[in-house]
Amino acid sequence: MPQQDKSDVVPGWIGGFAQSNPAFGYHPEPNLSSLPMLDNMKYIELLQRQQAVLWPEFSWETVPGDPTSRCFQMFAPDISRLGYTDTGRVYSIVCPQQGACSPSWGCLNVEVSVTGQRGWADETNRTLAADMTVEGKIWFSPPALDISNVKTFKTMFQNKGLSFPFDKANAIVVTTHKSKDPLQPIFPVRKGETTLFKSPDFARHAAEAWTVGNVEVEIGPIVSTGNDVVDDFNALVMDAFNLASGNLLYPGNLLTWNVWFDAPALVNIQEWQEHAEKWRKSIDANHGPKSGPIRYFNGTPFSPVESIFEQEIEAIIAYLKKHLGSL
Fold first, then answer.
1. In-domain check, residue 7
2. Rounded distance, CA 19 to CA 126, Å?
3. Is residue 3 part of a domain?
4. How confident is the model at residue 8 (pLDDT cuts 50, 70, 90)?
5. Is residue 319 part of a domain?
6. How far, in Å, CA of 157 to CA of 154, rounded?
């Protein structure tokens, strides 16, 4: 990665947290288990420095288990951030969002919501090591709520006092865990690009980025609400989302991303809180940063199956046959 002059980095860096415990280092793998997993928004007042993720490059297999089906997509840029102190202790990580559109349901938002984190950043050698726990959250974007299908189901659900994923607060929640370890919700964020596969040139930003890290997480099942009517509907929506997105959140699929960082900057606590609050309330499909196209390694665009509309309609009819008496 090209090295910028030291003058490109804001003053005030002290460092030392990465070296405060020998277990934290890369020999060969950082062990951060001595650190507690922290609530992601509880220690914002301690943040002093940040690195913005201007290029969150995600990758997954559109046909799980088939490496030739691997696709690449840059999620909405400049939402994600790594926040830490002058000594390098990480206290907050903001993750990105994107969307996918379905013929029957309109556009759906997805966010990788951080529920816990711990770790360090070292500006001296441009490295980092962190652990995270996250949830995937899916909800209808505001324009989708005007689609007749969605309006009908929302009205039926609300008339029965049932939850409906019309905003992030009521989102469908998808569990995640460490790769090949369903009982371990904590997974690593590590330095460098992923070594699981080669990324195409359009998904690499070595010339522009200050540094890069990588993350991988395996997708788990949807969190049950305890109500079959709601759970089956959520599964219906998730199936539509996966058809439209190439199985982005298909159970058992491995979601990997390279996080390409901008150079460090000082944190303005009020601005950080406002930034986090803005995106906590969701990305609106009609404004703000947009995700890039889904592409295969050779640049060919991903296209959902031609029968997606027919499959969605058949699934909706099957759902109504099963639950119409309860709605």
1. no
2. 14
3. no
4. low
5. yes
6. 5
